[in-house]
Amino acid sequence: MTYQPLPPEQPAPEPEQESAKGNVLEVFEKIGSVAVPIAVGMYAMLYLGLTQVYMVFGITPEQAGLDQATIFGRLIGTLIQLFLMALPGVGLLVALGWLLNLATRDSAGRLVHRLREQPWIAATVGALISVVAYWAFFGMLWDLSGGTLLVAVALVAIFGLLVPFRLMRRRKTGRAGMKVLTGALFGIGLGLMLVAQMIQGAVDIADNGNGNALLQTVGFQNQWATVGDGDGKPLHKDNPEERFLLLGEKEGAYVLYDCGKQETFRRSVEGTTLGMIEFDPDFSDPETGEVKACGYALEDAETQEQ
Prior knowledge:
By secondary structure, this protein is α+β, with helices and mostly antiparallel strands. Helix content is 61%, strand content 11%. The protein is elongated. The relative contact order is 0.11.
């Protein structure tokens, strides 16, 4: 019988190294457990918001030629941009907390830790963060405001969130579930606020052609062009420079929006020519700077004929 020599013993990792690795993993775990539910909630609301944007023009995103993969890609890009904008703010708060803890010789950190261990305090903080979703929900969809909105939100926070969150704090799985639920509701609340801005931007485009930066972020193409028939003759002979909003293309047809007539229509690609294509044009009066209706050129031409 032959004996194989034992491999040399590896030195055991030092306690400080193990502690550092554990702290890093714990930080990433906490960030992921909060960031993922927020991102999922915001994505769901932005998807619904994009649908509402196209409903302003009387169509759905699919009728404008947007498939699920395109919408997913655009909204993921939106979330990445929002993440990049929010990251410095979060980093600043973390840095301020670190400086405060350093100045107080870890007293602030110990105080925060003791407060987190108090079930009612943790449940109250979670309810206050989660109630952002209902604040936006009641204000946007139910059109509540002032004292009525405040009372409705307070009732939801106290009876619908505070007590259940307190009961969830009894177990470790409940605490993890509370963290996920709080992140999801916070993401939904932020998403609803963005949806309100998206819809307002779509209404502005339908009225005067001028949208907002948020619509560009979610991938809505505010693209305008002069439109002619197959022979290149403009649709509006009295005003050849009149522009139409190009909402998309599907099944061999352009989906166009006529702002002067406030209507959406389709034209075959073969029988349509596009010219003077421009993204985010300025429809304000060049002399006064006043923003007029995007069909004002057509209206002026009709007035002159009369």
